[in-house]
Specification:
Elements (H helix, E strand, L loop, with lengths): L10 H11 L7 E4 L9 H16 L3 E6 L9 H14 L6 E3 L4 H13 L3 E4 L3 H6 L18 H13 L8 E4 L14 E5 L13 E3 L1 H11 L5 E4 L6 H11 L6 E4 L2 E3 L6 H9 L14 H7 L3 H11 L6 E3 L1 H15 L1 E3 L1 E2 L2 E6 L8 E6 L9 E6 L2 E5 L19 E4 L4 E9 L5 E8 L17 E2 L2 E2 L4 E8 L26 E9 L11 E4 L3 E5 L8 E7 L4 H5 L1
Parallel strand pairs: 1-2, 2-3, 8-9, 10-11, 12-25, 14-20, 18-21, 23-27
Antiparallel strand pairs: 4-5, 5-6, 6-7, 13-24, 14-17, 15-16, 17-22, 18-19, 19-20, 23-24, 25-26, 26-27
């Protein structure tokens, strides 16, 4: 998408290159303008990659500007999280700005529009304004206050600023055309009254600009050459241009690309907030959430997210991206980076009967076959190991190449063992498997050349460590959670099995000292990351993803 060596350009790159060649702009200036009313999600990551990536490719700059025009929903908590997420993704902004930096200038420009007869104060309620807007097939109705004199409008707007009216009592509207085919142009609201403390300006203001009024003018103040946003703002572009033209200010221009929609999740901040507030997830950084902080906690890397955004490209039409493509980018990255270790999630003992009780061995294990610089580590071996419960079957079907009475398997990095039987508890559950080992097969190869079809992982029961493992699945059970039957909500599509917590899993001792967000491949099981809840003596691992796309088989 943003690779300098790529020959095929997306439509945004074509626009920028044309603007540069024709001298319309001398330097590229973009911006990323989040509203600080929630945490960023994977959809925002795409916008971040596009805005910062394009500016970097063409030698320009990107501003971070917070659209903080609604004090009721915004908080410094969200400001801090947004900055952290952008830095984690690998980007740096040129300057940090806020729409609130421009409140005075925006107010003065509103006064200018009133003086030009292009704005008026309306006493109608929001409901009356909505009803009088008309429909897509019928014109709206002029407000009875539309023809107030300029002097009266100036006086009322000043009184609005001074706090002489209550919330919703009056609004300032642009005077355009109540019969315009684009309903956004039917005298849109520019200012509303909100008596609430703002996270930066506190109680200085009680009138706040609407997004459609503040956004384009903020772009203009910052000399943004290419204001890049998602496709739903396409119908807002004429209003964006109208304000800039009427005020005769720097001609920023808006361009739209298709927003990111991914299967098995929701991208609405309102719905994500509902999941958090109503306790369906543990917080904004719950590893099942599509938030950037949730993906980070789960074990995603910034490189994998940037690669995913590049892989899906920049389109002009909305489409639905399968979640497996995001996981595919992650697997490609972790396969190159993650150290291999052995961990047993559902442990049962494997007792080697012909191995002395005091026998110990140290075996060489590869840390990462994709990166020789990672070297080797030592794994210890004894006569008592832990293996996965489902690596043994007392009565096995054909083509079952793991442990069953009379059958041999290879223990990863170690020896060939032959199953001789098992022990059960009073409920008939297998608690230990017995076997013998071939002392001549150290390293896993039979000296007589016999072929061993199965290889399983294990840990030494005598020096392993215990850990908690959290297995995460997709938060929703359906591809499009918002697609519901009458009377249902997206919450009815939640996956009841999206989290499984396993206690007392067994890990090789190489994991002692693992730090939060360290990433590993548990051989045969998947990729795992150390969770924030870990302590030095009690590690907690999150399964980041499986080794293969398990959902493809289910579908």
């Amino acid at each position: 998408m943003l690779d300098n060596d790529k020959t095929q350009k997306n439509f945004l790159e074509e626009i920028i290159e044309k603007d540069l060649q024709e001298g319309k702009v001398n330097a590229i200036q973009t911006r990323f303008p989040p509203e600080p009313n929630g945490y960023l999600h994977i959809g925002h990551a795409k916008s971040i990659c596009i805005n910062f990536g394009l500016a970097k490719k063409y030698g320009g700059k990107t501003n971070l500007r917070f659209d903080d025009t609604n004090p009721v929903k915004e908080d410094t908590e969200y400001v801090d999280s947004i900055k952290e997420d952008i830095k984690w993704l690998g980007f740096e902004w040129a300057v940090e700005r806020y729409a609130s930096d421009y409140f005075e200038q925006l107010y003065q420009w509103a006064v200018e529009l009133i003086k030009k007869g292009k704005a008026y104060v309306d006493d109608q309620t929001n409901e009356e304004i909505r009803q009088n807007r008309g429909t897509v097939t019928s014109a709206g109705t002029n407000s009875p206050y539309r023809d107030r004199s300029i002097e009266e409008n100036l006086s009322l707007f000043e009184q609005m600023r001074e706090g002489k009216f209550s919330d919703g009592e009056k609004t300032l509207r642009a005077k355009i055309d109540m019969a315009h085919p684009n309903m956004n142009m039917r005298d849109p609201i520019m200012y509303r009254i909100i008596h609430a403390s703002h996270h930066r300006t506190q109680d200085k203001w009680c009138i706040y600009p609407m997004y459609d009024y503040a956004h384009g003018q903020s772009d203009s103040i910052e000399n943004i050459t290419h204001s890049i946003c998602t496709l739903e703002f396409d119908i807002h572009r004429p209003l964006y241009d109208w304000f800039i033209n009427e005020l005769e200010i720097f001609p920023s221009h808006q361009y739209e690309f298709a927003r990111l929609n991914i299967t098995y999740t929701v991208m609405s901040k309102r719905k994500l907030l509902q999941l958090v507030k109503e306790g369906y997830v543990s917080g904004w950084d719950d590893p099942r959430m599509p938030t950037i902080c949730g993906l980070r906690r789960r074990g995603y890397t910034p490189e994998s997210i940037r690669d995913f955004c590049e892989d899906i490209g920049v389109a002009k039409r909305d489409n639905l991206i399968d979640y497996s493509r995001l996981e595919g980018s992650l697997r490609d990255d972790l396969n190159k980076k993650a150290d291999r270790v052995m961990g047993v999630l559902h442990p049962i003992k494997l007792i080697i009967d012909n191995c002395p009780d005091d026998f110990t061995d140290e075996l060489d294990a590869v840390n990462n076959p994709e990166d020789e610089s990672k070297g080797m580590r030592k794994v210890t071996f004894s006569n008592t190991l832990y293996i996965e419960e489902d690596d043994f079957m007392e009565e096995a079907p054909k083509k079952y190449f793991r442990l069953t009475p009379g059958q041999e398997v290879r223990l990863r990095y170690a020896y060939i063992v032959k199953c001789t039987g098992c022990e059960k508890d009073e409920n008939g559950r297998v608690v230990a498997v017995h076997c013998t080992y071939d002392p001549e097969s150290r390293g896993g190869n039979a000296t007589d050349g016999r072929k061993i079809k199965g290889t399983i992982h294990w840990v030494n029961a005598k020096d392993c460590i215990s850990a908690e493992v959290r297995l995460f699945d997709r938060l929703f059970a359906t591809e499009i959670p918002d697609k519901v039957e009458e009377g249902e909500t997206f919450l009815d599509n939640l996956n009841p099995n999206s989290l499984t917590v396993l206690k007392d899993c067994k890990m090789e001792k190489a994991l002692l000292g693992a730090k939060v967000l360290d990433k590993y491949q548990f051989e045969r099981l998947g990729y795992f990351s150390v969770d924030y809840d870990s302590k030095e003596d009690s590690l907690v691992f999150n399964r980041t993803c499986t080794l293969k796309d398990s959902w493809a088989k289910q579908k």
